[in-house]
Amino acid sequence: MIDLSTATATEALDALARGLITSEALLAAQLERVERFNPVLNAVVALDVDGAFRAARAADEARRQGRLTGPLHGLPMTIKDIFATRGLVTTSGHVPLADYTPEADAPAVAALRAAGAVVFGKTNLPEFGGDIQSYNDIHGLCRNPWNPQRTAGGSSGGSGAALAAGMTLL
User: Fold this and answer.
1) Under a CB-based contact definition with an 8 Å cutoff, are residues 122 and 82 in contact?
2) CB-facing half-sphere around the CA of 165: CA atoms within 13 A
3) CA distance 145 to 50
């Protein structure tokens, strides 16, 4: 097992390639950290646990068969809530979009999936990513993992906090 408190995406991909961990086990470990740290940090604002586990199992099976889909094959990760993500609520922190669930991925998300990424959640941000702190009226304040009395910073605050806390690797 790799240490998610310090691991990089490159290290996780190497561990996957060497068979030291499965995508499913890596996803479970990241979700365990989300459960542990997110109640205080509020960095991850939406999850697709069932869909992610299906994708992780499929990635593991494809790896066993030697059919890799790309350089991120089997790597579980989150997406900033500003990017449309098929099947996951995408709010951009904007109240009128609180219940919006896109039917298709934004091109960047589609490219990540095509590269083999396993998308399991969305991260907090200021409304439309346009502020120096990470607060919005839907999800509230994202806190800094090093000092929860402070915000995680703007634009990609939830992404940065989730990465720093080992809840996501990319």
Assistant:
1) no
2) 32
3) 27
pLDDT tens-digit series, residues 99-152: 999 999 999 999 999 999 999 999 999 999 999 999 999 999 999 999 999 989
**Token pair in block for residue 35:** 């459960």
Q: Which single residue is written with the structure tokens 């919006």?
A: 100
pTM beyond cutoff 0.90: yes
| Strands 140-141 and 143-144, sheet pairing | unpaired
What phi and psi, each to the nearest 5 degrees, are found at residue 59? Answer: -65, -40
What is the Cα–Cα distance from 28 to 17, expressed in whole angstroms? 18
- DSSP secondary structure of 53-82: HHHHHHHHHHHHTT---STTTT-EEEEETT
Q: At what angle do helices 23-41 and 49-64 cross, to 10 degrees?
A: 150
Whether the CA torsion 96, 89, 92, 114 is positive or negative: it is negative
